[in-house]
Each structure stands twice: as C-alpha cells, then as structure tokens.
C-alpha cells in the first residue's frame, strides 16, 4: 500500500509538475477532472466537492482572467449552458396555455354566489351578493351561516390575486428577455411560485369540496408544478454563469493558498536536506575550519618522502678534497716536529 501511495505521488508530479497532496489543504480528499479549453487539456482540482484550482502545462493557473475563461469552459463541460435562458420561453408558453382554463367554471360559480353582479369586498357585501340569488345561494347561507359567506369572500379575493399573479408572470418574463441576469431570473421564479401558491389555495376552497356548491375550476396544478420544476432546472443551468466573477475570485484565492503551501513545503525540504548534509548554522564555521585542518594534516602524512639524487662526480670531488686536507695536515705536523 505504501509503494502504491509513492507511485501516486510520482504520477502526480509527472502529470501536474508538482505533488497535489502538497498543493491541497491537509487532511482533505480531492478529485481531478480533465477537460479541454482552447484546444488544450486542463485539470480541475476539486477539494471536498468544491472547485479548488485549475492546472495546465504542469503548473497551477494563477491569472484571474484566465481562471474566469477556464470556468466558462469547465461549466460547459459539466453540462451547464448560458443558452438555458431560452428554456424560460418554453415555460412561459406553458403558462399561457393553462392560465385561462379556470375561467369557465369560475364564471359559473360567480353567477350562483351573486358576485358576477354585486361587489364582494367585505363580509357584508359578500352576504348581500349571496342573498341576491334567492333560489340558490341565500338558502345555503341561511343554513350554513358565516363560514359559507367567508368561503365566498375568500374565493373572490383569491381569484383576483391569481389574476394578478399571472400578470406578474408576464411582466417578469418580459424583463427576463430584456435583461437576462440573476435578478430577473429570480423574479420570474418567484412569479411562478406565487401562481402555484394561490392556485393551490383556491383549489381547496370549501365551495368546491366541503359545500360542493360550485364546480371546481381547472387550476392545472400538475402542469404548474412541472413548469416550475422546468424553470428551476433552467435556472440551475444558467446561474453559474451569473456568478462567474465571484467564482473566479474564489478559485484565485484558493489557488494562491495552494501555491504558497507548495513553496513553504519545498523550502522546508531544502532546509532539512541541508541540515542532513551539514551541521547546524551556529556551529558550522569552526567545525568546517577543524575539518579543513584535519584534512591538511592527513594530506601531509599521506605525502610520499622525496628521494634526493646526488651526482657521483660530486662525491669523488668531495672525497679528494677531504683527503687533501687530511694529507696537508699530516705534512705540516711532521715539519714542526723536526724543528723541535
């Protein structure tokens, strides 16, 4: 297992120019995703599910603008698309097809509760509207009491609110086409959510189920849910491009951290290597001087003794000179002895 780990470290150094284990934060797991950008291969280093850095040509990319450009290619490789704004057109077309399905049964209900000809904007006004339909609504109101009139009032209010919600969807869609950005997309999603919310509330009004007084209008709740999910998917495919500047800055900062971590670890390894080959800096100078003196002494001891060469003629000359001096001394001694 240890040999395999060293093999991975070696492979990482060969492919990326440095050890990724040293590049990413300590005690974290990471994956590498390869993609192309401008006809060249790059790698996205993803740490704990978060994009950490881009690596290309054996080094980490540290230029902010290049990181931004790489993010665009990386998002496309992942399946995101800046053209997802076109999907909102399909959602809007779906809304237009279902918005008026409810109208027929809503109109019929207004007739039997009297609100088609009498304003119903308070409890008293709604009571008057109901009592105006003496053959249908009034008898039920007399028997059911206040809750029945409150159901009529709620129906009127929510119907108008749903009309406004569809109008807001139209405005939000037009703004989205004019300025497709994060804010306009969020506004459109909010408009869809409001339609679904009000339609869901209307569909459960007691006039339709508890009292069974009106035929339930077709609020197309399943269709609304599908369209809302479709819009949310389009938002997911598009939102990353709206936030590409902040994402590029985040990757830039993380990359800078990784590069500094590499530099620190490399400096630590070099210091450790130097210390393993030499003594510590505090004692290195006298130790080196002593080592140099020992080497000099050893060299002198190891030097071979030089054998001097003497010319034989010189030896003969010296011998004759010594003999001559000796002979002269003897003759001088004999002369002096005779005089005595």
Descriptive notes:
The chain is α+β, with helices and mostly antiparallel strands. Among the domains are: 2-80 and 244-260, no CATH class; 102-219, no CATH class. The chain is 68% helix and 7% strand. It has 13 helices and 4 strands. The chain has helices spanning 2-16, 20-23, 64-78, 87-98, 103-113, 123-131, 137-144, 146-178, 182-203, 221-242, 244-277, 284-302, 312-339, and strands at residues 30-37, 40-47, 50-56, 59-60. A 4-stranded antiparallel sheet has the order 1-2-3-4. Helix 4 runs antiparallel to helix 8, helix 8 packs antiparallel against helix 9 and helix 9 runs antiparallel to helix 10 (221-242). Mean pLDDT is 83; it is low at 1-15 and 302-309.
What structural category arises from helix and sheet content?
alpha+beta
How much helicity do the residues have?
Answer: 55-70%
| Proportion of strand residues | 5-15%
Strand order across the biggest sheet? 1-2-3-4
Roughly how many Å apart are the termini?
A: 115 Å
For the biggest sheet, the summary is: 4 strands, antiparallel
**Gyration radius, rounded:** 50 Å
Note the overall shape: rod-shaped
Low-confidence stretches: 1-15, 302-309
Mean pLDDT: 83
- Find the count of extended strands (DSSP E, 2+ residues): 4
| Individual helix count | 13
């Amino acid at each position: 297992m240890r040999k395999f780990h060293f093999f991975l470290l070696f492979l990482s150094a060969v492919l990326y120019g440095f050890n990724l284990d040293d590049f990413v934060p300590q005690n974290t797991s990471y994956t590498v995703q390869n993609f192309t950008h401008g006809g060249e291969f790059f790698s996205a280093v993803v740490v704990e599910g978060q994009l950490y850095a881009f690596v290309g040509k054996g080094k980490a990319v540290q230029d902010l603008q290049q990181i931004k450009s790489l993010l665009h290619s990386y998002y496309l490789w992942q399946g995101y698309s800046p053209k997802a704004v076109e999907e909102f057109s399909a959602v809007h077309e779906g809304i237009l097809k279902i918005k008026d399905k409810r109208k027929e049964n809503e109109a019929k209900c207004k007739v039997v509760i009297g609100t088609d000809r009498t304003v119903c904007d308070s409890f008293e006004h709604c009571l008057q509207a109901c009592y105006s339909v003496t053959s249908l609504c009034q008898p039920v109101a007399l028997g059911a009491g206040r809750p029945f009139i409150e159901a009529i009032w709620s129906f009127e209010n929510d119907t108008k609110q749903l009309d406004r919600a569809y109008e807001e969807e139209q405005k939000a869609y037009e703004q989205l086409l004019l300025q497709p950005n994060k804010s306009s997309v969020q506004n459109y999603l909010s408009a869809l959510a409001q339609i679904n919310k009000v339609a869901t509330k209307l569909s459960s009004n007691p006039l339709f189920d508890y009292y069974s007084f009106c035929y339930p209008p077709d609020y197309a709740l399943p269709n609304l849910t599908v369209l809302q999910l479709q819009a949310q998917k389009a938002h997911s495919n598009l939102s990353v491009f709206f936030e590409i500047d902040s994402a590029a800055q985040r990757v830039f900062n993380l990359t800078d951290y990784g590069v500094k971590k590499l530099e620190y670890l490399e400096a630590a390894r070099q210091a450790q290597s130097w210390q393993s080959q030499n003594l510590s800096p505090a004692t290195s100078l006298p130790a080196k001087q002593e080592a140099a003196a020992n080497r000099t002494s050893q060299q002198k001891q190891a030097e071979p003794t030089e054998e001097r060469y003497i010319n034989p003629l010189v030896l003969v000359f010296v011998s004759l000179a010594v003999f001559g001096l000796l002979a002269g001394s003897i003759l001088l001694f004999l002369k002096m002895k005779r005089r005595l």
